[in-house]
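Entries read chain and fold; for instance:
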Amino acid sequence: MTPPKPDARPDRVSLLRYLRLFRQDILSAQPARLYRAWMAEFRTPFFRSYMVNDPPLVDLVLKERPDDFPKSDRIGEGLRPLLGDSVFLTNGETWKRQRRIIDPAFEGGRLRDTFPAMWAAGQAACDRIGAGEVEVEAEMSHAAADVIFRTLFSIPIEHEIAAQVFAQFRDYQRTQPLLNIAAFLPLPRFLPRGHRRRTKATARSIRDLITRLTEARMAEIAAGTAPDDLATKIMTTPDPATGETFTTAEMVDQVAIFFLAGHETSASALAWTLYLVATHPDWQARLAEEADALDSCDFKVMSKLKLSRDVFREALRLYPPVPMMVRETTCPETFRGRDVKPGAQVVLSPWHLHRHTRIWDNPDGFDPARWQTEGGRDCMRRAYMPFSAGPRVCTGAGFAMVEGPLLLSMLLKRFRFEAVAGKTPVPVAHLTVRSRDGIHLRVTPR
């Protein structure tokens, strides 16, 4: 069974029609030719945009000269009400300072320290899921949020503030697209940015709740009673260049992106992975057999979950949680013989790159075995970036590649998942790649 893929729009549409389609879903707003094009130019009266799928050009932008291609300010137009000046939106020296403080918390040794919290969240997720038809996107959102709160603040999702943040975020995620209209139109600062009233109100509420958690942790650190979790590590790590730590306000911005990146993206990836194994029972059976290795909370078990890792990796290829990234040129460039002026938008699309017909064998098919072939490994090096690439690679990439295979294995050890007839999910991009009407699976205890 070929995994579902959104229909593409016609090659030529008016700017107004494109903007309407884009606001509904950025995936189906794109033409089919982008799955085979090395580069495509999009012209409007306001700016030029270039989608880049050519691996050497992608490397140029993300790895070789990242300072010359900063993250576009327009990406922040839609997300700044929630994320403020978080590491996801900043550039230059501000971003470098933030990464110097944050990165040590996610080094290899810390993954081992966070493993018991992930394990506990996985057990709680298995205990919550009941038999029958289940909307697994909602369940995986609950599980991923639990992982974040347990690893970041040492509190379960049932904690009063954690539960409120999770509830508010469910309201937020469906009202806020990854990019809004201000990402296309260079509006003066005094004009409204096109945010829905409900979106702005929910973002304020979430940030108020995060502020309460952060201020409480600051007090615990001062009193010497803070637990040794990710929040404490980040809040007590000084910038090696200046000796400064994050202020409470700065930490609120970072916690907001940790929650978005660590919860929303993981939930998306896990839900799509469950759908893929539900529609490929041969792979599900192999994963369930592998999951027998989960007999105790021991980080060493991750070395035994090789199939689970490959299946999760394949799900990230087919359904990258963040489908597009936008950079901006700062000086004149030449892309594939075409002159590109400063200020142009450069769109890097994991969604299209991961399904590119001139790079991948069976690009739209589910084939976890590809990762053990030389061709698959070559494609991974050239055209696989679910966590971005280069200096701006997601700092939580290693965290996600432990969380995803672990929770997947724990769930498949306890349950069998089957597709529900007539409820094939349709991918759409909101904050992340989700299903238009949820992902419904039939769940049976093993």
